[in-house]
From TrEMBL:
This is Short chain dehydrogenase. It comes from the Bacteria.
């Protein structure tokens, strides 16, 4: 994995954002009422 090779993470899944985290984020936005519009959104790993 590029992030591990670059030393950005040790690869510990408890500290690295996972695909399901992104999927949950997207699904939550899709569930918003149609009268809402998400202009921009950001998702950052907290790296506990």
């Amino acid at each position: 994995d590029m992030a591990v090779d670059l030393g950005l993470t040790d690869g510990n899944p408890d500290k690295v954002m996972q695909a399901e985290d992104i999927a949950e984020f997207i699904v939550a936005q899709l569930k918003l009422n149609k009268r809402t519009f998400v202009k921009s959104a950001g998702l950052w790993s907290t790296n506990p």
